Amino acid sequence: TGVEGIYMPSFSVGVVKPTVLAVSGGGGVTGGGTGAAAASSITTKRSGFEGMELRPNLYEMRLLGVQDVLTPINASNPAFPAAPDREFGPWGLSYASDRWDLRRAVVVEGRSKQRRGGQQVERFVQYFDAQSLAPLYYASWDVRDEAIDVGMYVGRWSEEREGYKRWPGEPERPIRVIDPSGASFANLQEDGGWRRESWDVIGTPPEDRILKRMLSVGNLTKRR
Fold it and tell me: In whole angstroms, what is the distance from residue 201 CA to residue 183 CA?
């Protein structure tokens, strides 16, 4: 017997024929003649980490160049949950009052390998910090080349955070990472916007026993 569909954690799946993706009872994966169309219909869900979660095999990537930009890559003003009442300007999206740095960015463009309809991302441009590869800015367009959204990312440098959780089993090992502490996006197609505050996020990996449990079949499928 076969199970219709294939589980994709943190991804949303478009409407496709049942024969396109199937998982057999033995765990093998088979694909029908429209498998390419199915692949293009599976995209990451809206999670607050847009631009940091994507399926790179769906896009043709190319380097556009290098550019110097101002960015809040190492924010200093606390946000939620440390400061739940922080002000973000009249529209609730501004990090203008925070610390900004001049950084050299690598600019990359991704174009969908297949024609996509509606408001799905046809292409995007993303700026990455050249030294740390932390994401700085993101913008996307649909098939009509109309802007979908544009946003910026906010980070925190781990070595400036007091009491940062040490590496499991190796407390002397340094952890040098830009933690994703926030983001601010304008959704141009819907005349709105959203902000992510994740001030307490850390990049310390879990212990091996916890990681093994997190990657178990039961946990990944949420026992469904």
Answer: 13
